[in-house]
Amino acid sequence: MVVINESGKLKATLTGEMYTSPSVFQLEKKHIFSESWIFVGYEYEVKEPGEFIRTKVEHENIMVVRGKDDVLRAFFNVCRHRGATLCSADTGKAGIFRCPYHSWSYGLDGTLLGVPNTSECKEQLVKNEQYGLEPVHLQLWHGMIWLNLSEHPKPIEQQIDAQMIERFGNLETFARYGLENLRVAHREEYEVDANWKIIIENFQECYHCSAIHPELTETLPEFRSGIGTQNGIGTGAKFNESYQAFSISGKGNRARLKDLLPEDDRTYYGITILPLVFINLTPDHLIIHRSIPINAHKTKVICDWLFDPAEMAKSDFDPSDAVELFHRVNLQDFEACQWCQENMGSKAYRKGGLLVPVEQHVSRFYDYVLEAIQLPENEKGIF
Ligand code: FES
Ligand SMILES: [Fe+2]
After folding, report:
1. Stronger pLDDT, 232 or 54, i.e. the higher one
2. I want to staple 194 with a disulfide (CB 3.0 to 4.6 A). Which of 177, 259, 317, 341 is the partner?
3. What are phi and psi of 222, to 5 degrees?
């Protein structure tokens, strides 16, 4: 990253064009989103044989389905005959998948099972692996389903575990939150008029916290310093002394997640898993953001609040106090992201801006992006 003053305390941001250029976005699609493990859902959503969810990674229609052999698989949701979308339901349970167009049918393991009125070539087609549904690489990680469109994906550990270790110094801290046992109690979706990088950068710095997050800094007073929990190995932020829970009122009597340590009490940890996921750990619930880049200046963010199903089963379970805190934080963050996006094409931002020392880990994100997209040598000067 370019150091722009002699003390080395200020660093250059990316230039405005990096946040508006369709050609940069295309490079990011090709080299980042299509080459990375992308989080699309939870294993518990496809627990029984035949259960499926439909999703998208990039422009690709994909379905994730549990086979009769209990194996979870992902396929392109594209009929091998003439390319129709095979399954149009978002979720459901199926015995086979029958294409709505000419009724070719496929098994839950992707095998082509039936092709009507084709006695001449039926044998050539049916049960021939070559004509089954095209598979997509799938990995489970703590109950999360991750897909990778690359033909030869890098091991998922290289992407996720490496970032966990960088953040916590170990894998145990995150593991003890038992994400695989939790369930989504509430989901919010946000359409943000901002480039995905602005959103991810925002998750990675707390310099803005004192200015725009009154409720969050009330809950986590040390965030007023501008240093968030993402900055130090293993560090978490302690709740305000009068707060019992990570909620808008500070009240809450849900049991802490069962494998946590005393040091996790009244403590918040945040971690970004590049390229697109942000996870927040609190003693009784997790909050998971996934960003879905739409184009150079638009991103959808899905935010899930996950709780212990034993708590959710109680008659007085009400997550709204907890949801309200981070929902407000989200609205504040995404509005701020839009303040920046609307000026990324300005003459005043042609050369970009500055990062101050408490934001300098954001420059590592710039390096990650620039290294991944492999800008042609003759274009490097532009950005
Ligand atoms: S496109 Fe699916 S059966 Fe023809
Ligand atoms: Fe924020």
Report:
1. 54
2. 341
3. -70, -15
